[in-house]
Design brief:
Pfam families: Pkinase, Ricin_B_lectin
InterPro entries: Kinase-like_dom_sf, Prot_kinase_dom, Protein_kinase_ATP_BS, Ricin_B-like_lectins, Ricin_B_lectin, Ser/Thr_kinase_AS
Number of strands: 24
CATH topology of the largest domain: Transferase(Phosphotransferase), domain 1
Oligomer: single chain
Organism: Streptomyces albidoflavus
Largest sheet: 6 strands, antiparallel
Number of domains: 2
CATH class of the largest domain: Mainly Alpha
Protein name: Serine/threonine protein kinase
Keywords: ATP-binding, Kinase, Nucleotide-binding, Serine/threonine-protein kinase, Transferase
Strand content: 15-25%
Mean pLDDT: 71
Low-confidence stretches: 164-180, 309-466
Number of helices: 13
CATH architecture of the largest domain: Orthogonal Bundle
Helix content: 25-40%
Amino acid sequence: MFDLTGSGAEPLRPDDPAHIGGIRLAGRLGTGGMGRVFLGVHEGRYVAVKQVLPSVAGEDQDFVRRFGHELDNLSRLPPEATAPLLASDRDARPPWLATAYVPGLTLSDAVRLHQGPLPAEAVWLLLREAAAGLVPVHGLGMVHRDLKPSNVMLTVEGATVIDFGVARATEQSQLTRSGVVVGTPAYMAPEQAVTRRDLTGAVDVFALGSVIAYAAGGNPPFGEESGPAVLYRIVHEEPDLEAVRELDPALADLVTACLAKDPEARPTAAELVRRATEHGPSTAPLWPDSFSADLAAKAAFAAHVQEPGSPPPVSVETLNLGRKSGPKPPAERRRTRVLLAVVPVVIAGGATLAVQLLPHISDADDPTGPAPSLSASAPTTPGTGPSGPASPATSAKDKEKEKDEKKDADGDKEDKDADKGAGQGNDSENGADAPGTGDKGNGSGGSSSSGAGGGSAPTEDPDGDAKPPSGAHRYRNGENAKCLAAPFNSPPTTAACNGSGTVWAFRPLSDGSFEIVHESGRSCLSSGAGGTLLLSCNQAESRRWRTGPEGTLKSVGTGGCLDTVNGSRITTTQCTGSPSQRWTAT
């Protein structure tokens, strides 16, 4: 029997299956009109298993077809926007999929537990985290279309966007054909309310503005009705943001911009991330005490993966909350975010698809280790992660096992690179039936790394153990002789090496990769489909880097190398070793 304390799951019912596709089920997370979601254990981790109801699978072949599209598109989403698709079977009757499971509270539940609107710094954090999840989705021309408080999830690590239940795929296929809009009226954008089909990411920005207004004021800005009255106000009237302005005038101004009637006048998700980064907490406590204990209980459950007969989960008291609260014991190192839903998205241009939006990845590494001091040296011992070297009590047998696992991982990476070329993730012909781009240390390939002292370029370590440069450095580009910079936490660029925001530290991770930490100590360089950004240091795959040959820095998330475009803009492109991809520590 599984101890489900803190999981948010209910015990399995007598008529529930014990296994789906070989995955052992532990509990029931939820049931909708078209499907059910179970908590399972797969390859040593908790997973959310979504299974279509047998009656739906047998009667609605259009739904089954679109369910397959979900799987295909889930594998397309970059790591900062989604958790890995761990297993699936579109041909099963009924079909199912399994993704990483991460525990948390919906924003609706958090506001209820807090008994009112959240404090300003928590709302800024919510805005930053939710917008960061939308950036890569919009970069692929996709739109969520149904952001609302019940599918924004808060966790001990931050926040992410979800949409619970496979029913959304059916609503998308049936309602769109008849011209009926899909979404929640109180959070719809004007262009949704008038059933326009050329929807863009601006729809999600409008909805996010309404969600932020709800978090800051306790009510959606155009009212809570579900009928034509609220849609009329959304199209023709101005939002009620009085409570938001009383809480924080700067926040109210930004929400006002998000709620512009003209989609072109709204900020992008990337712009929201940049604006929100200046506000909100980045160290514990992230959320109010009123619901932090609930988040801690859920995180404690997820930190200890049970097998039948295993001891109970770690206690809540031993779990540190926050991103930079110091190293954790090994049992607490699983970083997870709630990923419990299949959501609708629309490909820009009008083609309707359903895709799972489960933004952020479960991680076997600790994301809450302290940010490196920019005046002190970082560890350079091979294999030493942020939690320090292995304990002297580690047995020789354990060390030999780790060595064998590393060899296996390196062999897997070489096989993938040989088959698919550098910089490509899993993209099989039937993409959803293969695992999606996971967030494991060797999941995306990339050259292994070694450090370099001042005045030298990072070099590739043939043994595969990353030794990132110790201490803090400026990194000069080989093409324009300028340095990697992000002044005042603005988007990464290159600038004069004596300017502000040009100092970076490499924080080594236990898998041999490292994070590139900005001199502010709060943010890390992140790569994705939408370009590079400064985002919270949470060890997600998009924040992981490896050193490559000729001074290159290779993103684990995209497989590309850090590059300059037009001499200033920073992105990742196919690794060629060109001067624009070479970086020298100074």
